[in-house]
Write a structure and sequence with these properties.
1 helix; six-stranded antiparallel barrel; single chain; globular; 4% helix; mainly beta; Thrombin, subunit H
């Protein structure tokens, strides 16, 4: 039996850092705690309520000025409650999405 991580197309890397979330419908900007990151999406903890199927822009800054920040449009695909609060999973959108 495959567990969830084994079915993923890309490995997820633990990436405990701050992330900036922009709600595309309202333009509201939120700070969240990034939990993990992959080529296809990421997960973060959020105090403000974020809805399933909401479109967001994700901005992850690098600690090094030599590495450009990651800025991607994303779609919320999972919202669950965890010990650390609300865990939000997003799928990055391609330019054609």
């Amino acid at each position: 039996m495959l567990v969830d991580d084994e079915r993923r197309d890309f490995k997820r890397l633990i990436a405990e850092t701050d992330v900036t979330i922009t709600r595309l419908t309202s333009g509201d900007v939120l700070k969240a705690d990034l939990v993990d990151l992959s080529a296809s999406g990421c997960a973060f903890h959020s105090d403000p309520r974020i809805e399933l199927d909401e479109e967001l822009e994700i901005l992850v800054r690098s600690p090094s000025d030599r590495i450009e920040p990651l800025r991607r449009a994303a779609l919320v695909v999972r919202v669950t409650q965890s010990d650390q609060g609300r865990l939000v999973g997003v799928r990055f959108l391609d330019q054609k999405d």
